[in-house]
Every structure is written in structure tokens, then in C-alpha cells.
Batch of 4 targets.
Target 1
Amino acid sequence: MREVEQQAELVRITANAEHMLERIARVCYNSESRMQCDDCNDGSCEKCAARRIKFLSGLKSKHHDSIFEHAVATFKLTTDRGITHELVRHRLASYTQSSTRYIKYDDGMPVVVPFFRTEAEERIWRGAMYVAEDAYAKMLAGGTPPQIARDALPTCTAATLFVTANFREWRHILQLRLAAGAHPKIRALALLIWRQLAPHCPVYFDDLARGL
């Protein structure tokens, strides 16, 4: 059995997201000329940055969220298959995930360890994992195809997936998955995502995980 840590890697994101989102949003008001001032010609000065934050904050507070759909981020995530089942319910995102139909775990069953409350829970879980790993290995050794042998694998089997979503959908995902009532694993994974996503568009994401 191989214990695997949850991970989130930001692979791709819209560059200069806040600047681009302001430019797009100002089409609604025919106010593109306000994106620069006498101190600069490209909206890069502190005065323009302050104005941009105020403008985008106003859109956010008015729930003009369609503007934020124009920015996109892709993450490579490592978690367990129970958590991937929850993630793929967010249907406005795109997913590509490692397949247990084709992958053979013949170098040790990879698992993401639960957040245990007691040592007794951990002992029971580890006993179950050894039984599952042994059954899976025996099926493979006997010639069972991985797509059949996988039925012996536990929910906590580790999986890798790529997720692409626009900022509006990422905000929706994080609002739900950072909540106190979310599953402990998905909440921890969401926090990893937020820490990498928020710096690229603080005006839209900063408020989601303050204090966590």
C-alpha cells in the first residue's frame, strides 16, 4: 500500500486576469477609455489598479458574474476516488481523470489516508486496506483484467485528474467545498486550490477562505 498526499497544481490560468476582465466588462458601459489615466498609458499604475479593484468589486457585489466567466484556470489534482465523485458533480467544469480500467496498481495500491478521529478507526481502516490490496493483487496475478479487478479497490484509492473551469465556476466550487460542512478531504483540497487561484484575481476570490 502506498500512501499518497492530496495535491493541487495550477497548470494554466488566464494571464493578467483582472486587467482583462475590466476591459471586457467596460464594453457594457462603453467606458474603455477609463482604463488608463494621465499617469500611465496602459492601466498599470497604482491609481488604475485601485480603480480596477473598485470597478470589479462593484460587478461582484451586483452579481454580474457572467463577466468572470471569461477567465479560466486548469488544475492538476491528486485526491481519492471518493472525492473525484464529488468534484465531477460540478458539471460546468471539464475533467480528465486516471482510469482504473487501464491502470494496473501492481507496485502497491495508492491510497489517500482519511482524517481519523481515533487510533481505533485507523487500525480498522488499515486492516481493510490490506485485505483489499491482497484481493486486487491476487486477481491481477490470476489474469483478471484491471477493469474487473478494480472492483476490489476502496473508495480512497488515489486518482489524478485535470480540471478546467472558468472563474465563476471555480468560485461556486470553492464556496461549496470550503464550507464547514464539506467532507474533510475535499475541504483540504479546496483550500490548496484557493491558495493558488486567489492571488491571480483577489477581488473575486480573496473573501472565500479568510481565516482558514
Note: Strands lie at 2-3, 7-13, 72-80, 94-97, 110-111, 158-166.
Target 2
Amino acid sequence: MQTITRALARGLSALAAALAFGSVHAQAQAPDAAAPDVLVKNVTMEVVDLIAKDKDIQAGSRAKLIELIEAKVLPNFNFSAMTALAMGQSWNKTTPEQKKRLVEEFRTLLVRTYASALAAFAGQKFDFRPLRAKPADTDVTVNVRVIQPGAQPVGIDYSMEKTSNGWKVYDVMVGGVSLVANYRTEFTNVVRDSGVDGLIKNLQTKNRSGAAQPPAEKK
């Protein structure tokens, strides 16, 4: 049985992994391209094509993979919202400069986790479920199932909100476990012990060492 740590690692990288290795179940009719579930599918198909054509990525180039994630995947995430949610009440106690640095470091952390976890999804398929939402909804959940040979599918839920710049992901849940909430526990502990600047240094250290992994499961 997977631990929360492994589940969150998979959840965080699920979209990027789908971009590299996934298969999308197309709908019979052509839906609105601006819809959140269609956005995920369209990005997926574009990146599948780019990866298939990139010999460096096929050969294992981490730098080219990160470059692709930066260009095609991350624009669909709201890192300011994700960082604010992960910080919880501590977010309101930070200065504008601290907010900027926290968002930058958290973003780097998530990018590296994407790149580090992609290999674990090689050969797996992804089933994008029909969107259950009303046309006027501005906050929806896009459901994805990771199809694993010989095992039960793993449910991945992307919380998305409609912004002035289109639909953006602000949280990822694996089996009901929130990525943001999991980081909030770690962030709260670090801020309590070392302050906001201590958290920034903590994130910088992780990013420099390449140890961009979700926090360990709490027992």
C-alpha cells in the first residue's frame, strides 16, 4: 500500500507524467477548448507530441524535460494561490518580498518534483474522467485515474479555478490527500521554529540539493 508521501509524489507529477506517457479518452463531440478538462487534454496531446520528437528527452535529458515542463505545463498552475494555501495563516504575516521569494522557491520545488517523478510513470496510462460541473462554475475538479497494471487505479483530482487568465490548477489531491495541505504541515512547523525567512532558506536548501520531494508521511 502506498504511503502518503509516494501518493503525493505521484499526484504532483501525474499531470506531467500524463503529458509524457498518458493516453486520453476523447469525447464524441468537440467541447469548448476553454473548458478546464479540455485544457488538460489539449496540453497533454501537445506535449506528448513534443516529447516524442525530442531526442534529448528520450535519451534522459533532465534539463530539456524541465524546460518543457516550464514552457507547457506550469503556465496552467496558480503558484501564488498554491503557496498561499500551503502557508495558511502565516501567509498574512509575510512581507511582499517574502511572498515573492516563497512563490519562486515553491515553484522550483514543484518543478523538480515533476522531473524527478516522471520516470515512475513510464508505461502507465491515464484516464481523464468527464467533467462534472455547471457552465457557470468557476471552481471545479478535474478527475484523472492512473491505470496501473495489476493494481487498482489511483485517483488524481486537480482543483482548478477560473481566473482572468483562464483556468489554473491550485491544488492536487491523491486519494483525497491534498498536496497543499501536506506541505502546509511542514511549512507551519518550519515557520514556528525558524520564521518565514527560515522557511525560505529551507526551500532554497532543498532546491539547491535537488531534494525536491514531498514531506514525509506523519505518523
Note: The helical segments are 4-21, 36-53, 55-58, 62-73, 79-87, 96-117, 179-209.
Target 3
Amino acid sequence: MKPVSRGIDRIGVTFDEPNLVANAGLLLVATLVVRLGLERLVNATVHLSGRIGGASPGRKVLTLVHAMVAGGSHIDHADVLRSGATSSVLGHRVMAPSTLGTFLRAFTFGHVRQLDAVLAEALRRAWALGAGPGAAQMVIDLDSTICEVCGKAKGGAGFGHTHRLGYHPLIATWAASGEVLHARLRKGAANTQRGAVRFVEELVARVHRAGANGELIMRFDSGFWSNRTIATLERLGVGFTMGVRMITSVVSAVSAIDESAWTPIVYTPDGEAEVAECTYKGRRLIVRRTRLIGRQATLWPEWRHFAFVTDLEGHPVDVDAFHREHARVELAMRDLKEGAGLEHVPSGQFFANAAWLLCAVLAHDLIRWAATLGEITPADHLTVTRTVRTRFFSVPGRLVSRAGTPTLRAPLEWPWAERFVRALTLLRSLPPIPV
């Protein structure tokens, strides 16, 4: 019997097909980009004229964004968009990696803010097409993360509380969809609270302008605990749950809780947990205590306490469960890094990396808007970029002409072909944003 490998070894390979599209599913996101009018929006908002590499910013931002949607994490990965007929499904001219590097280095603080304004307006336009919360309650999770780097040539990078060299951006996500609502790059040694008040004020104004008309609730971990931030939330009429550190005064308040006030909650088989509440400096303080039981009890015999302040009403057990869902922000940030290009920051210049962050956020959100408006992801499921990319974006295709109509020929029996066609139909039915 002939070995299987003998047949495999006989397969020749040539890279000479000009009509192949490497990631034909980018047509879905590109269709949404056209409906949102993003290239015109970037050209009208980001003013880099007179700076080297600053001409036509729209096509350069979209080249970076589409490369990230396709899985790119470095500037050089934009070359995948220049292969075969891939650029034909994007709706804009694809720029070379060297041009993109020069473009990013042209950014200053003001230009980064202009690109941030593009993100805010894109959010408003996408929500106007049906991707937003409308009058429903909106829960926002705010956190910071570490974008780790290597070497000493990264401007603004530093060692923070994690003792890892990198940047320390603020990220705000919509809990229901995982989309990033606001992001700001900060130096690596930044305190978690640094810039939080201003960030919250901008965030609330942004989601209101975008069309969020219902109740707003924000969740924070203990790193953001600040009376100034709480006062800002109360002034803006935003509900909150905010973790607190177990400092002496908090410990004293928790110690005063009567044993009969603790309510058991569902926990792991090898542990137990209880919830109670008290008042701390005039605010509601909800406390969860946990410990191990059974064979592992000797490792963790005493109660450990975790507390947060809140202005929300409801039974403490329910409010505690709601606050613990803040952990889903980690899923969104992981997807931003692994799925939309933020696992790497490419430049030695701080503002170039700040612009890269905003491009990654735009790519991250476009994937979610396409999944929502194209009904790719069920309403009760979070969008996972790797899943969407595997099923819809990375499908190969061949661009041919049928009776004068450009047609993408995709693989026969592609498992998600019907959903792809339906999503494309839904996205094409969206009304374009008026110029």
C-alpha cells in the first residue's frame, strides 16, 4: 500500500493566483465600515496634513483595522491585505506597512484625541443602526490592564504594581456585548486611579450622545476606590458598585456585623461563602466572606473578606452576585488583546501606541457590531473574536465575474455558509449614514 505521505509529498505549491482572497469574510466588516462611513469620518476628523505620513488618514486607519480583524498583531501583518484580490473586498486602498508605521509616528496627543472622537462617533452611528442599548439599563465595567512590552525603547512604558514592564490603559466595556466604549493609554507606572474621574466623565457623556437613554450602572474593582470618583458618579446620576480595600476602618465596620446577619450563598464544593451588609461612612457596604472546608480547611481555615460599596437597592446576595459579574470585563480585555491586535504595541513612541490602541478598539467593536447587526452571535451570548474569525472572516474565496457581476466563490459545504450569506444580506440592508 502506498504511504499517505507519498501523495501529500506530490502536491506542488505556487503563489500565482491573482483572484484569490485570503480572508473573504472581511467583506462583512468592510460592508459595515461603508455603511458607517468610517473612511470619510476619519478624513474629516483626524487632521494630520503637513506631517510626514499624514495624508489620507482614513485609508490608513482602515488598513490597520482590517488587518487586526483578520488577526494581525504587528504592522507588517497588513501585507496580508495586499495579497491576491483581498483589497477588492475592503472598499478602500490598502496601504503598505512602511507607510502605516510613518503614519502612526505622526500622531501627537491632539491627534490621538481626534482619533478617539472618531471612535465615539462610530459608536453613535453603530448604535443608531440598532446595536445600542436604547432605553434599556446599561451596565458598564471599568478596569485597567497591562500591555506588556520588552526592552527599554518603548516610550512611556514602565513598571507598575504587577512589576511587569508595559503600558497601563484604562478600558470601559459594555457588559452585555463586550464592546469597548472608551479606552485611554497610560504610562506603565500609572496608579490605577490616575485619570479615572476624567475618564468616567467622558465615558458618561459619550454613551449618552451615542443614544444610551436608560439607567447607567458602573462596576469597579478596589483599585478604583476613591471618594472623588464616587462623588462624580453620584453627580452624574450613575449607579455603581465599587470594591474597597480592607483597610483598618473597613475591617472595623465588617467586624461589627452580627453573626446572625450572614447569609450563606452557593460556592465551590470545597468551600463556603456568606454575604452580609453594613454601613460604612454613610454608604451601603456589602461584604462576602469565604473559607475552605473539608480536607482543605487547614490550608485556609479563617474567613477572608471581600467588600464593596454601592448605591444599588436589592437583597445583598443579589447585589453581590451582580458585582461579581464585573469579572467578565477580563473576557473582553483578553479578546481585545488576543483578537484585535493589542497583544503587541509596535512603536517606540507613546502616541503612536496610543493610536494603535484606538485602532484595536475600533477593530474589536466592528467585529461585535457586525456580529450583532448581522445576527451572527445569539443575543444572549458574548461574541468571541477567535470563533467569529474562524467561522466567517477567514473563509477563503476566489473573486470572479459572473455576467459582469463580481462574485466571491467560497468553498463548497462551508459549515457556516448560510449564516454568512444571511449576515451579509442584513448588513447590506442597513441604511448608509448620510454625508
Note: The CA atoms of residues 115 and 184 lie 11 Å apart.
Target 4
Amino acid sequence: MKYKDYYKTLGVPRGATQEAIKAAYRKLARKYHPDVSREPLAELRFKEVGEAYKTLKDPASRAAYDRLPYPSYQHRPEPKPQAARRAPKPTFKEPAREAPASAKRDDENFGDILGEILGRPATPHKHRGLNVHGSDQRAKVQIDVEEAYTGTWRNVSMPTYVTDEYGAPIVGKRTLKVNIPKGLRSGQTLRLAGQGFPGMGEGRDGDLYLDVVIRPHRRYRIEGRDIYFDIPLSPTAVTLGAMVNVPTPAGPVQLAVPPGSAFGRKLRLKGKGIPGEPAGDLYAVIVKADPVGGGVAQKAYNALKSAFAFSPRQT
């Protein structure tokens, strides 16, 4: 198991006094407390600081910790052989003997320190525990236009806290399979209660907020729940009218183009936009199709030009 340097966590030397350790804890707890801190992974750092202080604030548990094997790369002086023989087996557990009175006072004041940091009144002794609500988490999930019509599932990965064999929190990763219901629009947020960072003690777990983004589409344009797309038509079709088979995110539909329609006209398909209460609409915007090439097409256009003596400048 990797050695945890609690002195380094609190930023104090190994020979620091109890007052120095207490002062360092106050400073770091104020900096990383989840209720007031905006630091990344503040809750994890707060837990690490609390774990270090819980061990070092009591002279007895601190002495047991100091006897743990120290990594060789730190160049800690080896203990004298005689002292090593007298030392009990290293352990993180609290010693069975009665703790010093100063350690008892530190235990009693542990909750009060957090109260002072956050500007809260001291709690009664029987409720003085480290109960901290878990922080909320936020992530982005992208879906396609078609998935906004039908709903879908997404795997969402995010950092979390797990505990090592000593019960200490470390950063891990978890993946949730999330049901994305149909009818969501870009900018909407899904809240998953209790799926954020875990709380401490009796503190509740945080929530997970998923910001939904609909990916840009090569054919469709989205405005709220309404969807727009272009439908290319020839001058003959807009003049005489036509029945056109058009694709939509929910499948193809038959669209009636009224005679005399102009380019730029929007043909509305009510309720065919993104589902909801109410559902959006689907708009087919008439645009001019590319000219048809070939001699036959040119002759037809020339005949049409001769049949209608129309000059836009005269009218």
C-alpha cells in the first residue's frame, strides 16, 4: 500500500507542534470545505486533510503513525535497534489505552473547528460528527435530432470517490447508464438525485446534472422545439403544385405543395417537431432546385418563356 504522508498533506514538518498541526488544519479546511470552496476536487482534498488531522491531532495515534515504515526515498533516519524492538506493531487503529486529556479536548472541539471555519454555531457534543453533504456534479451529454424524437441511452463517465483498504478516500472513476427521455431540447438539464459525489457521515449524496446538447445536423435546423429543413423544388412544381415525399426525423411523409407557392415559403407540419407538451412543428422551406440540364429541358424552358410575355421590370 502506498505510504500517505499526513505531514505533507497538512503542509507541516514532521516535528511540528500540536498547535501548528491544528492551525494548518484550520487553514486547509477553510480553503477546501465543499460548502464554501470552488477549488476543483475540493471535497476530496477536504477529506484528505480531515483524515490527516484525525491521525496527527492525537499524540498517541500520531506516535503510532510515526512508527510506520517510511519510504526509503524520503531518507528518513532509521530508528535505533533497541527502540525498534520496543515499538509495537504499526497500526492505524486507536490505541486501547486511555487517550490524554488534550486528545479528548481535540476530539470534542473537532466539530467546533469546522463550525468556526464556516461561521456556524457549535453543535451539541452528542451531534459533533463530520457530516458533510456531497458536492453536485455536472456533465454534458450529446444526442442526435432523431434521438430527441425517440429517447435513447447514454453511458456517462465521471470522477468519484472510492476508499482504499484503510478506508481513506481516493479518486476513482465510475460510469452510469442514463436513460435520456424523448422530447428534450438543447439547453435542458436532467437531474439525477443522489448520483453526485458521496457525502461524509450522515451527509446526503450530491446530485448529478446532465446538460443536454443536440448535435448540429446537416439537414435540420432547430429552434426550440420547431425544426426547419429546405425542400428544393423546380419552378414548374411551385407553379403547378406537387405531392413530394420528404424525410423527417420521425420518418418520411407526403407533403402537398399548393399551386402558386413562392420560393421561401414555409410549409408547416403541425406537431411534427420535437415531442413535448405541446409538441413543436416541422417546417419545410421551399428553395429553388438546381436547373435541369440537357437539350430537352432547354427547349421546354424556351417554350415556357415564349408562352408568357412577362417582364418583372414592367410590373
Note: The longest strand covers residues 152-163.
